[in-house]
What we know:
By secondary structure, the chain is mainly α. The chain has helices spanning 2-10, 12-17, 29-44, 48-74, 84-93, 101-117, 122-128, 131-160.
Amino acid sequence: MKSKTIKTFTNPWYFLALGFGSGLAPKAPGTFGTLAAIPVYLLLVQFGDLGYAVFVIAAAIFGCWLCQIVADDMRVKDPASIVWDEFVGLWITLFMLPSGIHWIIIGFMLFRFFDIVKPWPIGWIDKHVKGGVGIMVDDVVAGLISFCLIQLLAYSQSWLT
């Protein structure tokens, strides 16, 4: 653990992949990584929908490479400490939400549910897609499912009022 901690704060790839250090949490690193993604989300929404979307797509593509090189260096197929995938998954979930902290909380809970429980197709992807792409894509799909559900909820709430 000590060498991973040192690399996290001296190697920029580790720093990003381990979510600015949030992935080093001894328990529930994915949850801590998802929480650490919220301040970045609050910055991203300042760039408008197009800027946000471009950033998140780039972060997902970059994440495939990033997660692969860090996992290879760690010599672990899918280290729990890599949380860049949770960052991207949450950002996908929260895309184009109405303002309000309650939407962030709902999005956080939805994303964590799908990331932890891994219903089909997330679980299938997690088991069968390997490497950096595998690390990323199950969280991207969890984010997309969460995005659809939270958008439906937001739309239905606005329609009822």
